[in-house]
Amino acid sequence: MTLFILALLIIIVLFGVKNIRMQFITRPVFSFFKKVLPPLSDTEKEAMEAGDVWWEGELFRGKPNWETLHSYGKPKLTAEEQDFLDNQVMTALTMIDDYDIVHNRKDLPPELWQYFKDEGFFALIIPKQYGGKAFSAYANSTIVSKLASRSVSAAVTVMVPNSLGPGELLTHYGTQEQREHWLPKLATGEAVPCFALTGPEAGSDAGAIPDEGIVCRQEFEGEEVLGLKLNWDKRYITLAPVATVLGLAFQMRDPEGLLGGKEALGITCALIPTDLSGVKIGQRHNPLNMAFMNGTTQGEDVFIPLDWIIGGPQYAGRGWRMLVECLSAGRGISLPALATASGHTTTKTTTAYSYVRHQFGLSIGNFEGVQEALARIIANTYQLEAARRLTTTGIDLKVKPSVVTAIAKYHMTEMSRDVLNDAMDIQSGKGIQLGPKNYLGHPYMANPISITVEGANILTRSLMIFGQGATRCHPYVLAEMETAAMEDKCAALERFDALLLGHIGYATRNAFSSVFSALTGSRFNQAPVSGETQQYYKDMSRMSSALAFMTDLSMLIMGGDLKRKEMLSARMGDVLSELYLGSSTLKMFEDNGRQHDDLPAVRHVMATRLQNAAKALEGALRNFPNRPVAWIMRAVIFPLGNHFNGPTDKMSIDLVKGMSKPGPARDRITFLCPDFAGDKGGIAEVENAFVAQYNCRNLHKKIKSAQRNGTLPRKIPNSRLFALALDAKVIDASELELLLKADKLRLAAINVDDFSEL
């Protein structure tokens, strides 16, 4: 006891007496901190400053305020947005024949191009005073998703002008003159935009673009002006082959000092008409046979006035920050919209197909092997829709959540790949035989495009999510890094002392919370709701405190080396991502009014999220380079082992049974894939067969019963079986008519296209 009291007194004196604390703790720790401090490049610093910290900050800090999550509100469409979806979007869907677009035209038909222009599909984000729609991010996402349910090529064509490009950049940064000149033309489709960022030497590392703009004087339109001589070589530029105005990112240099400042000004963005002398629109690429316009552009000694810089000359060198801010918004809308459309389409068609496709005398949806894959499709679709809604909610709140949008881009496009793979496994020949009736082939082929663009997924996972999240979301690290860079050493030490005390308390709380939650099964953690989902909130809080604790120790032990340990930081980023995805699922369940028939999907999703988070933590612990520290962390995070085992077989079976029938729960996660008269893509065909077969389920039960008792034979064609059932008075004439009609629809749905020649 004496030794304990003595040790306690020493600790109190060390931390409680400022002069002693500064001498023996703050000063040595500050010195150590500056040595292990991860260096930030200029582009990293700009990326850090450009985005906002939103809900991911709560998740990263170990004690999420779930009431904050619920306070964000439910995403809703305005009356104008809903009217556009009900009319213009539905009309566009009836005009789409994706097989013809991809295999015959290699382009959208002229009438669809014109309809998109006339009805404002390219003006979704443009302010109303310039002739645009000024729709919300949620509406933008919903429109793109519905188009993608019928054609990836059509969806991308609409998506790009409403994502990163001239419209977005002009709206946020353009001068009044630039807005008044360009935005009305973009809104009506008179001007078709593209944005040239990626080149042969700069892909995911967009900050390394070699294209240059040199400040010089030259004659332009009859007078000598100060401007830029541009040379560029860009590729993978969507809409470039048909663009009339080119947004261009380049390195701006002033070697003669004409602007009176430094020579290298940095990345700059400008708008250039494609008919300007020296501008070359190159040939088309062929992105996995999709028909959206994508190609190259080059420029040789193209001269533009300085006023053509987006935002004017004062925005020279500020292009990277502009791009990061706009890209983070677009990354959270466009590609997640395509991914969610894949989920809605595969759930709608695969639940229907597995009901109408029979093998061994049963619907294939009755086989547990199929149910396992089908449960993953349904659960992933519920997750995709939930993440789409939460992410667009953040964007509509006018925050720029760069970490959240990176999470959405990476995980949602990967889930899209998973649902399409599972759907292909279940629908088999129906999925692989291309033709007008095939609704899986083109999305399956196009999926790697989403994986690749707007930051390759490998880079996004291994560098961006945790790399930015660990610094941006941490309540102390960014401030400590700024303090270390201060020139006034005395002021820096004073500020660091205050930060250090807070940081120590923060780390201690997370360590205690993590071990206590693990030992008590999270029973004492807070949750904002009661009922079945209550435990999920508690377990998520436990994972949050574990991530915060492990992040602190990792940054302390590894310092700047952590950034280079990409596999380790990727796993820790996975924990943050799983927490975000789980949060979106719980929020959507609340937003939907806690519907009981949604619970099977919520159970499956949350079991998966918690399993994945725990697995990522275990993987990080197993590969942590400092083994003694890894043992300490394991004792705190998993003192009783990892018991997050994922969905049970019963969860999967219950989920599939609930979704293998028409109803509100199925409608809520398939509404982005409407079925309508005149559908050319086979979706309405399989859905109509499903509904007809489901409505005949009791008649099929009567026939099965008669087969079991020997009244009717087994294993004979349906047309003959139904006739015998009528003769045996198992069914009546009206029931026979229903059965024959449903069977005709079933056969049409399971059949695939064939051709006299290809």
UniProtKB/TrEMBL annotation:
Pathway membership, UniProt: Lipid metabolism; fatty acid beta-oxidation
Lineage: Bacteria, Pseudomonadati, Pseudomonadota, Gammaproteobacteria, Alteromonadales
EC number: 1.3.8.7, 1.3.8.8
Organism in which the protein naturally occurs: Shewanella eurypsychrophilus
Keywords for the protein's UniProt record, in alphabetical order: FAD, Flavoprotein, Oxidoreductase
Cofactor(s) recorded in Swiss-Prot or TrEMBL: FAD
Top-rank lineage group of the source organism: Bacteria
Name of the protein in its database record: Acyl-coenzyme A dehydrogenase
Catalyzed reactions: a long-chain 2,3-saturated fatty acyl-CoA + oxidized [electron-transfer flavoprotein] + H(+) = a long-chain (2E)-enoyl-CoA + reduced [electron-transfer flavoprotein]; a medium-chain 2,3-saturated fatty acyl-CoA + oxidized [electron-transfer flavoprotein] + H(+) = a medium-chain (2E)-enoyl-CoA + reduced [electron-transfer flavoprotein]
Annotated Acyl-CoA dehydrogenase/oxidase N-terminal domain residues: 83-190
